[in-house]
Specification:
126 residues, alpha+beta, 6-stranded antiparallel sheet, 4 helices, 35% strand, globular
Length: 126
Amino acid sequence: MAKVLEGLYYSESHEYVKVVGDYGYIGITDYAQHALGNVVYVDMPDVDDEVTAGEEFGAVESVKAASDLISPVTGVVMEVNEALEDQPELINNDAYENWIIKVTIADASELDNLMDAKAYAAFCEK
């Protein structure tokens, strides 16, 4: 069973948002990294790029497949996780510790469209 953490917001495309103040740390869920297998490359946007809820902002590539990253919220990229450039497999080690981008959240009400841990766990079981 994939790990689902309380206190995060989850999308149907298997991204999560960890909200800290006005910022959101976005990554892929444990479920997603299990489904992908060994991650070999993460394509990330640049700092100051805008991301839009429901739209692609990058991709994660594994030995099995490539998967687009869909932003759960709208905002501006403040930081990218540079450690993933050299060690993309960190996502396999702990998907929740190894976020992909940090954004300023433009509209916190967008979080209402996402699932909580309980709803996401149920979604993954389907």
